[in-house]
Design a protein that fits this description.
The structure is a homodimer of 452-residue chains. Chain A has 452 residues and is of the alpha/beta class. In chain A, 40% of the residues lie in helices and 22% in strands. Chain A contains 15 helices and 19 strands. In chain A, helix 2 crosses helix 10 and helix 12 packs across helix 15. The radius of gyration of chain A is 23 Å and the shape is globular. At the A-B interface, strand 13 of A face strand 13 of B.
């Protein structure tokens, strides 16, 4: 059995750090969390990256283990499929699944984080020390240096420090400094795209101005816009646009150019965004990048988790779900391993191929969302998959495996899903778009017999 | 014409920084070099990574432009091919080329660096400020902070700062800090191998104990040793060994294990290394890693060059040659571009695909050197290539293009060389190892007609 008396220090009380702290407190560990930002419950600062989150089964499974799934889902809005807006404003609905219970959930990052922090403090008041920045780590001495609210340096001794401090992790910086000793492999890859958040307010009587229970997409080939519903009847729209080129951030320099651009490409949306010019020119431009690294642990002293270990781009809606699944798996490993070193090692070995897989799938899906959803072959394939799922409920598409089947790892979902996709895209290359029951049966048999 | 009055600051007076400074001084620019280490001419410190260097045509071309190739080649030792040592100590010679003048040159890093520094100071005494560490850069303000010999901070203003400060570049750290603004892509990948330098002293009457004009290789599949000649009749041997596994650094814990290991795998070498135990356990273990990044420049203010921009592993003998070629290309761009911004931009665009190519080729060649040189198919292929080169002097193998043809870029050499290799390996898969003139002609025609 592992040593229950060990103090576990957590750097970062974002979504993953908070859920991790909560589970460890629930298991009776002594836990202390350091957070560089002020308490979001007492201030108006943003909860970080503000793209809405799409909570799905992997994340829900982890929240369930902490007993919070019900409270959290009450604050979310179901999204049952993608609603595609074409250039003329025509709508096409692509359901995520034809099985009951298989939808995704729009939730605000802040709401979720606040629920988690409140749950932590119910068990241990003041478990989270805010306005405290991690400055330096030394795993050999087990001493870390913080800078507190008053800009004073503070030292603390740690048994195990877990870095859940996000994509720009200060903990990971320690691994970089120790590259030669740890043989630390690291990559950061930026998309040539930035994003801008825009707001669609409620209509009269607080009505949603677009279909409420859908994820809206305006796919435009080399760029796209999406919109997710919020409980206050607003939508958060996000425009993804290249930095450079003929349609890009660099050419949209003034109101005229912006309005012309929106009138050309997002005609049905422009009237819904009253503060377009102001938001576009005043909101910060977000960046999209993928971080991969290994190892994630320095013996049994420091461990990276969540975005600190594997930041991904948001196009599979899995960043948070993957981070929550980290906590879920870590939690299971606590029961299965004899000591902290093997917990950290097993965690890295199990999670690394899976986080690499979802990183790659998210990059693929960016192309799919902005480009392929409007493609006829892809649309026929989506239709065929829906028919397959109806006739054979045991059939799961790649998207459905990733989103609704936590029992299938990301890696397995990627391998199996890519083979399925290849087969189905070949079938849909012909213009046929109706299939008889026996044809579907034949296709299904081929899918089942794919060699994996 | 570019502004000749601009001061160019260079961080790092290693091989690339020194050659760059020299060329810029020869062109009449105002140049200042900052070097973190002490002056190697006045102290016994090592010149950094001490693996011997194999100077070949790309490097020589750049040294020629600075008028130094003659002096430097006088200090080098010709290596005309690989001399393979098998388990029983049998030797097989693989010439690098059958054309005259196509050999590589073993030279000491220190000798080379000293010649370059002396040439700089002949033009501008005190151009190099030693013991001065770059601490901080701000490209917007054009101000950098140094720490001098007395640990005092010094500021300087720069027009253009060129970072030639090696694989662990402090300049590149600035690009990392500015990742979001520059969309800075970065990767570092460690081999699972470390290396250890060992010394083969001269024999009686200062005779070389192994063939002088060859690069010696003991290929052993998952590990290998090499040895390069030095002018003092010593050889520097380098053992490349995995960190972990059945034959690895982790299992060689004491003298007995080490001697048994050498007796088993390097029987003909063990008697040549009198201080084996002492050197193996006291010399530091070197690490092998590849660094790729982009962009290499921040507008016309900061530019990375050499290992700072593209560190590669040493198995194609091209690290220094590639860095010197950087200087050669940069030098040409000074005549071809109207301003510093386009010089920096063109430099990155031209060199990035080429440095990526040599990085990948070096990783491939590590496998080739430790494993394939002992493989019968590979040996037949090498023999076939030698016959082709003899009968058709215009035929260049991948290795020969990379090593002896600066007029062919690394990228083109990689693309063309890989296609040639594929064709020849297929031919040599059969056990045939003699070819008639007309058969050679037929093979040569196939090589010429490869679609590229």
């Amino acid at each position: 059995m592992i040593d229950q008396n060990r103090t576990i220090q957590i750097a970062g009380s974002g979504l993953v750090g908070s859920l991790l702290a909560l589970r460890l407190l629930q298991r009776g560990f002594n836990v202390k969390v350091y957070e560089s930002r002020p308490d979001m419950r007492k201030s108006s600062i943003s909860a970080g990256r503000s793209i809405n989150l799409a909570l799905s089964h992997r994340g829900i499974q982890a929240l369930k283990s902490a007993g919070l799934e019900k409270e959290i889902l009450e604050n979310a809005i179901k999204m049952e499929g993608r609603l595609i807006h074409d250039l003329e404003g025509n709508l096409t609905f692509q359901a995520y699944s034809s099985r009951p219970g298989e939808f995704i959930n729009s939730i605000s990052r802040r709401t979720l984080n606040v629920i988690l922090m409140d749950a932590i403090e119910k068990i241990k008041p003041n478990a989270i020390q805010f306005n405290t920045q991690l400055k330096k780590i030394n795993s050999q001495s087990g001493i870390a240096v913080l800078e507190n609210e008053l800009k004073q340096s503070e030292e603390f001794t740690f048994d195990l420090l877990i870095g859940t401090d996000g994509a720009a992790s200060a903990c990971r910086q320690y691994f970089m400094e120790q590259s030669a000793r740890l043989h630390f492999n690291y990559s950061q890859v930026f998309q040539n795209y930035g994003y801008k958040e825009l707001t669609i307010p409620p209509g009269p009587n607080n009505k949603f101005l677009l279909e409420k229970n859908a994820l809206h997409i305006w796919p435009r080939g080399h760029f796209m816009m999406i919109a997710l519903p919020n409980p206050d009847a607003t939508f958060t729209a996000t425009l993804f646009l290249p930095y450079h080129g003929s349609e890009s951030f660099e050419v949209l320099k003034n109101e005229d150019q912006l309005v012309t651009f929106f009138n050309t490409h997002f005609k049905d949306a422009i009237s819904l965004i009253p503060h377009l010019t102001q938001e576009f020119f005043q909101n910060p431009t977000g960046h999209l990048y993928t971080v991969k690294c290994s190892p994630w642990h320095d013996a049994d002293k420091v461990l990276l988790m969540g975005d600190a270990a594997h930041a991904i781009i948001p196009f599979y809606g899995q960043g948070m779900n993957c981070g929550f699944e980290d906590v879920f798996i870590f939690d299971q490993l606590l029961d299965q391993n004899p000591d902290w070193n093997s917990i950290c090692k097993s965690f890295s070995e199990i999670r690394k191929p899976n986080s690499d897989a979802i990183a790659d799938l998210a990059e693929d899906n960016f192309i799919e969302m902005r480009d392929k959803v409007a493609d006829p072959v892809f649309q026929r394939k989506r239709k065929l998959e829906m028919q397959l799922e109806k006739q054979f409920p045991e059939y799961y598409s790649k998207y459905a495996m990733v989103t609704f089947r936590p029992d299938i790892s990301y890696y397995d979902a990627m391998i199996k899903g890519r083979k399925q996709d290849e087969l189905l895209m070949n079938i849909c290359a012909s213009e046929k778009s109706e299939w008889t029951e026996s044809e579907l049966k034949e296709i299904y048999n081929k899918l089942v017999n794919l060699s994996l």
